[in-house]
Design a protein that fits this description.
Elements: H1 4-11, H2 16-26, H3 35-42, H4 48-58, E1 67-70, H5 76-85, E2 89-93, H6 96-108, E3 115-119, E4 132-138, H7 147-157, E5 158-171, H8 195-204, E6 207-214, H9 216-225, H10 242-245, H11 249-261, E7 265-274
Helix pairs in contact: 3-5, 4-5, 7-8, 9-11
Length: about 280
Amino acid sequence: MTDHSAIALHYERPGLLETILDALEKAGKSPPYTLNDLAPVDQFHMGGKSATEGLAHLARIDGKTRVLDVGGGIGGPARTLANEFGCPVTVLDLSEEFCRTADALNRLTGLDYLVTVRHGNALAMPFDPRSFDCAWTQHSSMNIADKRALYREIHRVVRPGGTLAIHEVTAGMRGRIFMPVPWASLHGMSHLESPHELREAIEEAGFRAREWEDVTPAALFWWQSRKVDSRNPAPPPPVGIHLILGPAAAEMGANTLRNIEEDRIRVVRGVFTRL
């Protein structure tokens, strides 16, 4: 069973917006911010902004696509989709602080007319059936124990013939992962299934796979390029995901890299059609 209060607490960073704005100022950035200004901090997933863009093209998103970003964090992918394709995007997230930060950054990038933010639970979404053309998840499912309930709820809010686009962390072949990681401080907060089990849960909910691939090598390269080392951490840049992760950022990064290298976690992406 998922402990939503513990998960919300894990991600909670009081004053996150102010921390990000202060870091941007130290980096010589001023509003209106560009998406490249924000990309080091608001693309809170492996692969960064290029991973978002790659999934968007696989999903065939265009200006008419009504997108729901489930677990959209502080809104980086949503703003990327809105900016590049001109499509309306709704962000749903469990963290009130993430939602507050996303709202402000939407305004400060001039994208608040396309991107809206709702605070809520992905297992009981505050949306009518068939409200969206595409549901989008990037590193959003790892805290949710009941994957079948998640994808049934996504199926409910996506129209028939619509799309589910995922970029998710899954279990590897080597068992227990090293902690902490970006999505969990304790083992009871992390709920990973194998790639096969994840795809099965999605298809049982009423989706058919259109694209499915293991992108672990790309995720490994991305982490290696960041040169994460908890024993000898390099000073972080002014703007980066360490602003979201907090003091344990270096340890989380090093553990994630080790988990990938030892096949304790894998990363997949896929595009599905809603039946």
